[in-house]
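Section 3.1: Structural characterization of target chains.
Under the original work plan, the team committed to producing a structural model for every single-chain target entering the pipeline before any wet-lab resources were allocated. The record below documents one such target. The sequence was received from the expression subgroup and is listed exactly as submitted; it comprises 68 residues.
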Amino acid sequence: MNIPYQSLDPDTLRTLLEEIVTRNGTDYGAREMTLDEKISQALHALETGKARIEFDVNSETCSLVVCE
């Protein structure tokens, strides 16, 4: 199920993005990014339509999914 990020309260969206970007706990980039940088990057992807939030009813979790 697609969840429009605009429908979420800003604090709820930030908490959700924080949970998503820290879920795996591993950073494989050229340099380690701060939590705020990761959240900003995820939010930018949502705002530019490069990603969307999907809710999985079976696992009851949200994920950031890249739009193709």
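The beta strands are 2-3, 51-56, 61-66.
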